[in-house]
Amino acid sequence: MIFGRKRIYVAYVGGTIGMKPTDNGYAPVPGHLTEQIHDRPEFHSAEVPKLHIREYEPLLDSANALPADWLRIARDIVEHRHHYDGFVVLHGTDTMAYTASALAFLLRGLAKPVVVTGSQIPLGVLRSDGRQNLLTAILVAAREEVHEVCLVFGSHILRGCRTVKASASGFEAFTSPNLPPLGMAGVEIAVDEKRLLGHPSGAVGLPMDLNAPVNLLRLYPGMPASLLEAAMAAPARGLILEAYGAGTLPAHDGGLLEALRRGTERGVVVGVVSQCVDGRVDLTAYATSAPLIEAGAVGGLDMTTEAAYAKLVVLLSEGHPSDEVRRLFASDLAGELTS
Question: Name one GO molecular function term (predicted).
Fold first, then answer.
């Protein structure tokens, strides 16, 4: 147990928040973020927990992020879990929702707050949103009632595995379409404890690797069966299919249905999510969902595409049999879906 002033581990993975203006635009510069925090008195106030900052080498542009990077971050947090009260992950916004979702599944059982954040403008630039985002993230990471992965951006405190990026440039860039915010950062930082996950049981068990090949395909009118065939061909072990509405697809397209059947017979696990941002998959609602049920596809209920993809990668990498993966995919593991 840690006594006295709270201690927060800040992992700067990469992203705009720590970049420096150069002649060629914003660029990552090692040590720049640490200098910016060191030079700002608000980060050393008695009201702010003690910070330990680790800058990753090399710094990662989030557009280059891979599942292996999710595992690297998770291992870093697990390695330091007994020495800090909470964790802040600084990350680029482009794939932040994927990383926040993956960490929610990888860190099941951690029982400490992990807060993912970043910014649209670097911390050292006039009008940066990074100062407020980072301060809010640090203060949320120090709250004893939080035992889950959150994403903080602008005024919103969101469940990490419920988030999507909704704006390329706005300061309120992330939203949680199927779950209200866990809290808001205004004059006060207010967290609704009724919406938080309870204290988890069990221990964190990370997979050796996070390399299960999972593809992602968005259905569209006239899509050739060859695309689905390619998405389910070896070495693919999983597919997230963004279907229409509540989980429908062209029920009279024989080529598409045959490609789906062959892929699932080969053992590919198919998870179905909705193309609607505010949507929920119910494979029993329409007859045009019947081929998905017959093929053994699993409805993702109200999971985001980001959460569904990360979840399937994690489950397959953990080594579960296909039937168990299907069962777990449809189960609530980290607050990512509403049963």
Answer: asparaginase activity
